[in-house]
UniProtKB/TrEMBL annotation:
Provenance organism: Xanthomonas populi
Name the UniProt record assigns to this protein: Uncharacterized protein
Span list, region Disordered: 287-308
């Protein structure tokens, strides 16, 4: 980011280029996985793309409430959230956590989509809707690691049911997959035994690679293999919950960062994936102020929301944003409340084809 204005990350375009290479590499030895990668590439191309702040710092982890889960609905059928993770740059390799291998990922994409025949990447994947008739979102991590300087697709992801409840569960009450993943999060300092949990279902996308990892890394222990997938998708699922709970606030709008036409012509001439148009979250009042001050020339939108939280009142939910003011003020902070109406039941935007 430069001068408090949003700069395009262009993660999706670079991920597409690397996933093409991976798909070609696995074409003979893992054809099902290669085919899924090609489908993921098409979903990345057609997804609605958002740029989020570093580590998606929209909600303090300890501030996660039921209101966030209630508002966590995808604004479009297929969405890609791009998130830099800059605090992991230059760090030493991560040790295993709870026997599960870990890897730094400094650039991340949370690819999210709602169940639909066009997006069924493996036969039977959408059958999960039978368990969750109120629907939900598939969330898959796509990440760039400084250790191989390549974009990678997670072996699987998590399905986040829309009808979800945040509650405190004793470790003894949890299913083996959840218990293993949560114990690993606690060991890593990213959770506590008292942390509240919500329902989430891990799934695999790359069949041959999952079978290989199951045999070679987890000694045939399916609970550990799915716990690894759950753990690997944890951050991306949290990105989705945070971003969607904010997107669905009435006072939050989006500014558009258009694709660079001249640069894309050069990229296309070289056979490279063109860059995409992005959406950036902004408070409605900040967008109006930017419009008033506009000089007639296009400028990148200012960086969107910083940390805040939702507040439930008797008849509405409000987004509360803490804004620093001048040093001569009494406490240095002004708190603003905004009305947040619930999303109309059953409302869905038009589906984008892939």
């Amino acid at each position: 980011m430069q001068h408090d204005r949003v700069q395009p990350l262009n993660y999706c375009a670079h991920a597409i280029e690397d996933l093409k290479v991976w798909a070609a590499k696995f074409h003979h030895d893992a054809p099902k996985s290669a085919q899924v990668m090609l489908r993921i590439i098409e979903m990345l191309r057609h997804s609605t793309k958002f740029i989020l702040p570093n580590r998606c710092n929209l909600v303090t982890p300890d501030e996660m409430r039921q209101a966030h889960l209630d508002l966590a609905r995808l604004p479009f059928p297929c969405v890609a959230f791009e998130v830099p993770y800059e605090q992991e740059i230059g760090l030493d390799p991560l040790p295993e956590i709870g026997g599960l291998p870990q890897l730094h990922a400094t650039r991340r994409i949370a690819l999210c989509w709602e169940p639909h025949p066009s997006y069924e990447l493996l036969p039977g994947l959408n059958d999960i809707v039978q368990k969750f008739p109120d629907g939900g979102a598939f969330v898959v991590p796509i990440y760039w690691s400084p250790f191989d300087s390549k974009w990678n697709l997670g072996i699987g992801g998590s399905f986040h049911p829309y009808k979800n409840e945040l509650r405190e569960l004793d470790m003894s009450e949890q299913l083996p997959v959840s218990r293993i993943a949560n114990e690993a999060l606690i060991e890593a300092g990213r959770g506590t035994a008292r942390s509240k949990q919500f329902r989430s279902e891990p799934f695999y996308l790359l069949p041959e690679l999952f079978d290989m990892q199951l045999a070679e890394t987890h000694n045939g222990d399916q609970a550990k293999a799915f716990a690894q997938i759950h753990l690997d998708a944890h951050d991306e699922e949290m990105f989705m919950i945070q971003a969607c709970s904010v997107i669905n606030c009435a006072n939050v709008t989006t500014a558009e960062l258009p694709a660079p036409k001249m640069l894309n012509k050069k990229r296309e001439a070289k056979g490279k994936q063109p860059f995409f148009t992005y959406k950036v979250l902004q408070l409605a009042e900040e967008k109006r102020e930017a419009g008033k001050n506009a000089s007639g020339q296009h400028a990148s939108p200012r960086m969107h929301l910083r940390r805040g939280h939702l507040r439930r009142l008797e008849s509405k939910t409000v987004w509360v944003k803490a804004t620093m003011v001048n040093a001569s003020s009494s406490d240095g902070v002004v708190v603003k409340d905004y009305a947040v109406p619930p999303r109309p039941a059953g409302s869905k935007p038009e589906l984008k084809g892939v």
